[in-house]
């Protein structure tokens, strides 16, 4: 199956250009394990039957070899152990005990073969004789000497079983070498049997082997190959490569030609149809013709495979070119990183964003040259060589490896400079809108306050002005209508009432004027040293008659730093408020402490209700008037403070804090006036 992917490699481990590679997926063969199991079982049964015949039939009949399974004892034992080891080791996953049992069988088979090889080449050692006698109970005379080729094949097959699942050393898998040698010995022994009959001469003693032993050892070798196809010569028959396909055609033909030619010659010799030389000539000519056919078919196969490979390479090249063109035409910057995050590919747009050439970017490893430096480096910007930055939106995708872990990384960068600029502009616009909204909200609040003030002012003015005006109008009407009938005392009394109402209106108008000035911030204080006792006395004298009892306990030498006019207005409002809402006696006291001067105005009335206290100094508080509101602002304008305290057991107390005038000393006891 032809695949290409970023960062992949060829089967030999060589990476292709631009991260594109070919990969061949070999098919899985499901019959190799049953074949190995069958071979192991057949070999084990051959060895087992031979041993049974040796133990039961041979001693009774006095034969040199068994008739049913004509194998020597050590060969039968070796085949039994080799087949058992193959049966144990065939599964791909085995338990630890099963794996070691299989290797032990292989080791015993190899040891028996090694002892047999030594006795065949050097002479009897007694080891094999003792072992066979212990197992079979056969007399020494009936135990034939082992064949060297059979012993060597057992050694090689036993070694192959021991090293079946071991790691290769020096890039060579020992199992493949051993099994190939064992297969070759068995095939040579079979060919030797044929040639020995053909030429009517004894074969080389070193290569001599009974035909059944050769077939059994060949079957054992093929079973080991089938157990692990990728470890031995059978690997050449699996897959879809050109060499594999040629091997599947050529190797069987060579084997069949060799064995077939020998058997044809043997048959011709046995039937005496043709002389031996003629049989050899005929078999050679037939072999030549068959080899020509095989070579022609192999050449045709190679040509077809080459054409198919060229077609696939062209398609791959076109696909690669299309992918490269597509990558280069993207409007986003693309960076391809390998598993170690080394840059292996970039497109044109990324070079434009970073201001660097392709050669400068390829091969870079973290930290990259386009990443901002510093502790507060932003991750969403790209640094250019001239120091400017480009705002980007980065997205990284991991390309997984089939074996687990990342194979490569692909990162895309989208230039969002215009988007960032639009976001900043939008943020500025939002801030300006919020500022305008705040201004509108403040204006609305001021407008609401103004509307509330207007409503309260209209209500207050209509109440405060209508009463004195109505009284003045009634008194004036009475004076005009009954002037001649009224006595002088009544006329004077009515005139005084008119004057009192007129003074009340003048005071109200003055308060309104002062209120407007306070709202406009046009009130300023001209503070100076003011005698507090004299100021209180003068204010008390200005209060309208009849007035309740007002006592002042103030040191005559106590002076405060304040605007005289403002202080008179403050005291007038506080005393008027006590007269209007409180009860006599009304007390005014003043004390000096290190922090300032405290002036207290107290009455003995019901006091201020608790729910009114929080808004007592607001506009139109305490009976919807302006007095306490004006008092608070005038006191604050003179760098003072005022507060309300409930008096005990009853009454209201207004506490005024003012700065003492320079040179005012502390007094021990104020005087009552």
Largest sheet geometry: 5 strands, antiparallel
**Segments where pLDDT lies below 50 for 5+ residues?**
1-29, 198-204
- The ordered string of helix (H) and strand (E) elements is HHHHHHHHHHEEHHEEEHHEHEEHEEHHEE
Number of alpha- plus pi-helical segments? 18
User: How large is the share of residues in beta strands?
Assistant: 5-15%
Structural class: alpha+beta
Strand order of the largest sheet: 2-1-5-4-3
- Tell me the number of structural domains: 5
Shape: rod-shaped
Count of individual beta strands? 12
Mean residue pLDDT: 78
Description:
The protein has 673 residues and is α+β, with helices and mostly antiparallel strands. The protein folds into 5 domains: 32-237; 239-325; 333-415, Beta-Lactamase, CATH 3.30.450.20; 425-506; 525-658, Histidine kinase-like ATPase, C-terminal domain (Heat Shock Protein 90, 2-Layer Sandwich). It has helices spanning 32-56, 58-61, 73-89, 96-121, 127-136, 148-162, 174-198, 211-227, 242-271, 276-329, 348-354, 358-361, 417-481, 488-520, 532-542, 564-581, 621-624, 627-637; strands at 333-338, 343-346, 381-383, 389-400, 406-415, 528-531, 550-553, 559-562, 586-593, 596-602, 641-646, 652-658. The chain has a 5-stranded antiparallel β-sheet with strand order 2-1-5-4-3. A 5-stranded mixed β-sheet has the order 7-9-10-12-11, with helices on one face. A hairpin with a 5-residue loop joins strand 3 (381-383) and strand 4. Helix 1 runs antiparallel to helix 3 (73-89) and helix 7 (174-198) runs antiparallel to helix 8 (211-227). It starts with 31 loop residues before the first helix and ends in a 15-residue tail after the last strand.
């Amino acid at each position: 199956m032809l695949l290409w992917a970023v960062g992949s490699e060829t089967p030999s481990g060589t990476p292709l250009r631009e991260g594109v590679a070919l990969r061949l997926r070999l098919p899985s063969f499901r019959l190799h394990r049953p074949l190995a199991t069958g071979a192991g079982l057949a070999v084990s049964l051959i060895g087992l039957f031979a041993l049974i015949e040796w133990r039961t039939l041979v001693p009774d009949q006095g034969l040199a070899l068994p008739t049913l399974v004509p194998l020597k004892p050590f060969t039968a034992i070796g085949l039994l152990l080799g087949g058992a080891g193959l049966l144990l080791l065939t599964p791909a996953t085995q338990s630890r005990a099963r794996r070691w049992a299989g290797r032990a069988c292989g080791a015993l088979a190899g040891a028996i073969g090694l002892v047999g090889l030594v006795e065949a080449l050097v002479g009897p050692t007694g080891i094999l004789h003792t072992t066979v006698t212990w197992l079979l109970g056969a007399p020494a005379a009936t135990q034939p000497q082992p064949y060297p080729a059979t012993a060597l094949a057992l050694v090689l097959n036993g070694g192959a079983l021991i090293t079946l699942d071991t790691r290769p050393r020096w890039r060579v898998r020992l199992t493949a070498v051993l099994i190939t040698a064992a297969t070759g010995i068995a095939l040579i022994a079979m060919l030797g049997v044929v040639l020995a009959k053909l030429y009517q001469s004894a074969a080389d003693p070193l290569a001599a082997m009974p035909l059944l032993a050769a077939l059994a050892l060949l079957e054992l070798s093929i079973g080991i190959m089938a157990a692990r196809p990728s470890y031995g010569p059978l690997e050449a028959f699996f897959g879809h490569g050109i060499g594999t396909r040629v091997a599947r055609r050529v190797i069987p033909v060579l084997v069949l030609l060799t064995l077939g030619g020998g058997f044809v010659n043997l048959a011709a010799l046995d039937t005496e149809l043709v002389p031996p030389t003629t049989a050899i000539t005929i078999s050679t000519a037939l072999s030549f013709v068959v080899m020509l056919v095989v070579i022609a078919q192999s050449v045709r196969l190679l040509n077809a495979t080459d054409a198919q490979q060229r077609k696939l390479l062209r398609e791959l090249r076109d696909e690669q070119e299309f992918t490269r063109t597509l990558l280069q035409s993207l409007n986003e910057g693309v960076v391809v990183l390998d598993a170690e995050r080394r840059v292996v590919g970039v497109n044109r747009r990324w070079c434009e964003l970073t201001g660097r050439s392709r050669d400068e970017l390829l091969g870079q490893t973290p930290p990259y040259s386009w990443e901002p430096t510093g502790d507060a480096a932003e991750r969403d910007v790209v640094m250019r060589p001239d120091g400017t930055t480009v705002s980007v939106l980065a997205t990284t995708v991991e390309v997984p490896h089939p074996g687990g872990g990342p194979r490569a990384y692909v990162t895309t960068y989208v230039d969002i400079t215009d988007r960032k600029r639009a976001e900043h502009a939008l943020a500025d616009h939002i801030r300006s809108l919020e500022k305008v909204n705040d201004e509108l909200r403040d204006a609305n609040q001021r407008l609401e306050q103004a509307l509330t003030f207007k409503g309260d002012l209209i209500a207050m003015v209509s109440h405060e002005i209508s009463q004195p005006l109505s009284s003045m109008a009634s008194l004036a009407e009475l004076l005009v209508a009954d002037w001649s009938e009224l006595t002088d005392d009544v006329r004077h009394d009515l005139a005084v009432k008119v004057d009192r109402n007129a003074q009340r209106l003048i005071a109200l108008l003055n308060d309104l004027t002062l209120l407007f000035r306070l709202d406009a911030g046009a009130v300023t204080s001209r503070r100076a040293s003011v005698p507090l006792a004299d100021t209180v006395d003068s204010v008390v004298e200005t209060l309208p008659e009849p007035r309740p009892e007002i006592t002042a306990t103030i040191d005559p030498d106590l002076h405060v730093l304040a605007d005289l006019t403002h202080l008179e207005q403050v005291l007038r409002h506080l005393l008027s408020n006590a007269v209007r809402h409180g009860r006599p006696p009304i007390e005014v006291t003043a004390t000096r402490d290190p922090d300032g001067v405290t002036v207290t105005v107290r009455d003995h009335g019901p006091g201020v209700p608790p729910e009114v206290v929080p808004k007592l100094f607001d506009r139109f508080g305490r009976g919807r008037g302006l007095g306490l509101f004006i008092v608070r602002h005038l006191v604050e304008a003179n760098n003072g403070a005022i507060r309300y305290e409930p008096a005990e057991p009853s009454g209201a107390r207004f506490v005024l804090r003012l700065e003492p005038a320079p040179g005012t000393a502390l007094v021990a006891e104020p005087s009552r006036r």
